[in-house]
């Protein structure tokens, strides 16, 4: 193990992103490996939230247009800050709603079913909320049996060929995750999109586990829409307002879910009962934006602007490479299953490991100061984040995991998930 510690120290000494670690609140004596569920608070996010609260204190209602960070345009401003992370134009990106609400908004707007073409292609490994939303839309559209799920051969990953082969003339819309939330597999978004476009199919992606961890080129690829949360790799805080991308070619279509903040800002306060939609992504807003749930993003996204997503991705791969190499070296073959694909092009920002006593292992890790998360039925996700985790953090995580496994310390804990896994 000591040799691995030397390797960690060497990598940390050459880490160009190491300076950002001090900008985050990291608990003393703990190794936070759950940034793909909830990112840590940064000092920049704290400052921007306090700044917006100060504007409320000083300006009252005039904070909507005055103060350091005017609220009336905050959704658009944050959208501009996220645009480079997904490879889109500024006027195509917005901070608004939640991920699930944005699925309802975009799919209900862009889905145009006919008797011949009304099915929506999803996958059997996706996060359940996406599936709930799609099923509700199909129910409301009169096609309750219109959902088609891409199967997984191994229960962990999806085949691009299988996805493409299922895009027949009955498919009207495709919505898939960019990175699978359990296994961490990256889907071949460009290839999937290319095939969808050739066949006249609307295609969208859920970027919850990829934005802030990997680069994207959604506009260049021709993706129609994308949704994502901002509290994972973007470190926006619990329940922070979600993100939305809609390709500008769809902006002339009036949105399905209409509300006063989707109105043209020049006429919004005319209070007309006739909806005058904004001419860009802004029309996808519905109600009054949740200012304090957006404010931390103003600070957290400044860190990404300075660090650069390419550098974040480079270090993220190095961290997970290091973790995989350690696991393969210090554990007996078959003792710990590495589920996540090892190929860089197919691997996101976290590693999924499997063991029959995974829930107990997860609890044991937490008791030793390592914070991962459990995923049923028998897996633990470990996510070292490039902006605030070091290679020594990864070393200590695997060292503690080795101690737990060698001493069977996980047997002291019930092999059952908590209310929140």
Automatic annotation (TrEMBL):
What broad class of enzyme is this? hydrolase
Point out residues bearing the modification N6-(pyridoxal phosphate)lysine.
232
**Cofactor entry:** pyridoxal 5'-phosphate
The record's Pfam families line, in alphabetical order, gives: DegT_DnrJ_EryC1 (PF01041), KYNU_C (PF22580)
Instruction: List positions binding pyridoxal 5'-phosphate.
Output: 99-100, 127-130, 206, 209, 231, 260, 288
The chemistry this enzyme catalyses reads: L-kynurenine + H2O = anthranilate + L-alanine + H(+); 3-hydroxy-L-kynurenine + H2O = 3-hydroxyanthranilate + L-alanine + H(+)
State whether it acts alone or in a complex, and with which partners, per the record: Homodimer.
Family (UniProt): Belongs to the kynureninase family. Belongs to the DegT/DnrJ/EryC1 family.
> Which HAMAP family did the record assign?
Kynureninase
The protein here is known as: Kynureninase
Its lineage reads: Bacteria, Bacillati, Bacillota, Bacilli, Bacillales
